[in-house]
Design goal:
heterodimer, A: alpha/beta, 6 helices, 18 strands, B: 13 helices, 0% strand, globular, chaperone (chain A), UreD (chain A)
């Protein structure tokens, strides 16, 4: 029987995905290789799909101490790739103290090509040591949608930011091949969480997180994510002012009760944000839109980002429904 | 008068080179000392304490003089207009207390001050140290820092204060550097001048280039006299202390407490220990490894724009 899985690469934890564009604007895999503990699965290509979907998995559903994952992705001109996961990426406590678990992702997106990376959040367990670096090189009018989020651990076991160390770095570089100039750093977003006893901070890591169970960053760049970025910026400026009071009478409120579907959706979402202790902000940084959010529960964070992406709907159109599997 | 001194400097190219060599040797010596000494701020031993006490009082160096100027609250940077997220923090604590029904009073000393110092140190202090160690890299460091400030409000605040500082340097310090060179720091002042002049020209010409406070404060603190190899620890300390002072003064303006309590917070051993510990934490952090150690700080600062009433710009 022919194995349904792609063939393996040689080094442990190494993986490489190459996506190309077939005639009739269909994106397809040119090659896909991987090695334990990394596992990559891509469903069969359908002629109607907007992007290639690859599932990024690890054996046993998590990474143990000392695991090193090193994934390279090349997306050729005008091809589109969506990367998703199947459940949280669990980071276990290392068996030998001090062993760091690492994941590195290097992505090169050619002119006109696009990547939609919407994985499940990373879940660092108690005592885990983890470093993650995701480096993206965007050529010309390449597009990127990147979600990076981290949770407080296994809530069912009472964990609440009990990890030892967490480092998550995202870098977006602009590469200009025609001029041959040096790559330009557009955004560097790094989160450093230190729960070790050497941390000079007088408060525990849990206290510094101020009741948030999840923190996330969404980074958008390029023509395929432009409308989504504008949507986030518009919604951010439409948020009610903190500390403002409503001086309208009940009758006046009735008068203004006729709302467009977008307005009623926004009203409901804002109510939910207040209920879930969800805080978010959006900013335009050097041609990228960066959205940061935190919520009191993991589900609240997932529902919020899912509802924002579904309402705007350009990701479904550009990458297909499967690209949003992890945020539904 | 200053033009006369300038001529002198130009004539004394050899002297300038010699001074530069002396400076480089001093920096090499300092780097070697740092390599052989694992902890950045070793506690003085009893013997060395005794030694310093028995010595006759030495006048503070010129670099101390400029560090004191840079840490002065009268330095016209407009710092009083910025609260670095304090105002937003207070508003969010109030609304979160309303939501959960808990009477959790926002605490400045036990909560916001350590959070803000940690966040400021982890995101910007390595840039200050790097710019201090190599002033010629200031434009590149500033570009990197600009890419890492992911927050409209924070970016605006940093750029406004950075430009104000560059203005002070241009209008007040640079004219002094030629006379300072008489005192034997020609190489250092020359270097800083050579770095900052094109940088400010670049800023003028493009109008889009950023100039963040932190990279500039270190360059200008190194500009008057870089010759003291012991300089970096005080610069890093002054940088974080100035942040603490700005926060405390914002707290007074926001009516959290009065001016006496403010001084008590600044003078407390806890605040001193915090600053020392954060300087030590970031001492060897390369600028590319900086990051946010308090993620919620990004949310508070980013959401400052959403406050209904504001007395600060950040």
């Amino acid at each position: 029987m022919i194995s349904p899985f792609p063939k393996s690469a040689s080094a442990a934890g190494e993986g490489h995905i190459v996506v190309k564009l077939l005639p009739h604007d269909v994106s397809a895999l040119e090659s896909i290789t991987y090695q334990y503990p990394l596992k990559l699965i891509s469903p069969t290509v359908k002629a109607t799909q907007q992007s290639v979907v690859v599932f990024l998995l690890s054996y046993g559903g998590g990474l143990v101490g000392g695991d090193q994952v090193n994934l390279k992705i090349d997306i050729q001109p005008f091809a589109r790739l969506s990367v998703v996961t199947q459940g949280h990426t669990k980071i276990f406590k290392p068996a030998i103290p001090g062993t760091i678990t690492r994941q590195k992702l290097s992505v090169n997106i050619q002119d006109g090509a696009a990547l939609c990376l919407l994985p499940d959040p990373v879940q660092p367990f108690e005592g885990s040591l983890y470093e993650q670096a995701q480096i993206f090189h965007l050529n010309g009018s390449a597009s990127l949608c990147l979600l990076d989020w981290v949770t407080h651990g296994r809530a069912a076991r009472g964990e609440n930011w009990d990890l030892l160390k967490w480092t998550g770095r995202n870098e977006i570089w602009f590469r200009n091949q025609t001029t041959g100039l040096k790559d330009r750093l557009l955004v560097r977003d790094t989160v450093l969480l230190d729960g070790t006893s050497e941390s000079p901070h007088p408060m525990s890591l849990q206290e510094t997180m101020h009741g948030h169970a999840i923190f996330g960053t969404l980074i958008l760049r390029g023509p395929l994510t432009r409308s989504l970025g504008e949507f986030f910026l518009a919604e951010f400026s439409a948020l009610p002012r903190i500390g403002a009071r409503d001086f309208r009478t009940a009758a006046e409120k009735e008068e203004g009760a006729e709302r467009s579907p977008l307005e009623s959706w926004r009203m409901g979402r804002i109510q939910q944000e207040i209920q879930d202790g969800l805080l978010w902000s959006a900013a335009n940084v050097r041609s990228c839109v960066v959205i940061k959010f935190g919520a009191a529960t993991v589900e609240a964070g997932r529902n919020w980002i899912g509802s924002m992406l579904a309402q705007e709907a350009s990701l479904q159109r550009n990458f297909g429904e499967d690209a949003l599997l992890c945020v539904r | 008068m200053s033009s006369q001194v300038r001529v002198e400097v130009n004539d004394g190219d050899a002297a300038e080179l010699e001074a530069e060599i002396a400076d480089l040797e001093a920096r090499l010596q300092f780097a070697k000392e740092r390599l052989s000494r694992p902890s950045p701020a070793p506690a003085p031993t009893a013997a060395s304490k005794h030694n310093t006490l028995s010595k006759s009082p030495t006048p503070p160096t010129s670099s101390h003089h400029f560090l004191l100027l840079l840490s002065d609250s009268a330095l016209p940077l407009g710092s009083f207009a910025f609260s670095s997220g304090l105002e937003s923090y207070l508003a969010h604590q109030r609304s979160s207390a309303r939501r959960t029904g808990q009477q959790s009073r926002p605490s400045f000393t036990a909560d916001f001050l350590p959070l803000s110092l940690s966040s400021y140190a982890s995101t910007t202090l390595p840039f200050v140290l790097a710019a201090h160690r190599d002033p010629t890299a200031v434009a590149d460091l500033d570009d990197q820092l600009d890419a890492a400030v992911i927050c409209t409000v924070g970016r605006r605040a940093s750029i406004a204060q950075g430009r104000a500082l560059l203005g002070i340097w241009e209008r007040s310090f640079v004219s002094l550097s030629s006379s300072a060179s008489v005192a034997g720091t020609a190489a250092a002042t020359g270097a800083a001048e050579e770095v900052l002049k094109p940088f400010s020209a670049l800023l003028r010409s493009t109008g889009s280039s950023s100039s963040s406070l932190s990279t500039l404060i270190s360059t200008s603190s190194s500009s008057p006299a870089i010759t003291e190899p012991q300089l970096p620890p005080p610069t890093a300390y002054v940088f974080l202390l100035s942040h603490a002072k700005a926060l405390v003064s914002a707290a007074v303006r926001a009516s959290l407490f009065g001016p006496y309590q403010a001084q008590r917070v600044l003078a407390s051993p806890e605040t001193q220990a915090l600053i020392t510990a954060f300087v030590a934490r970031e001492w060897d952090t390369p600028p590319e490894d900086t990051g946010q150690s308090v993620p919620v700080m990004d949310l508070w600062i980013g959401r400052h724009e959403m406050l209904y009433s504001r007395i600060f710009n950040s």
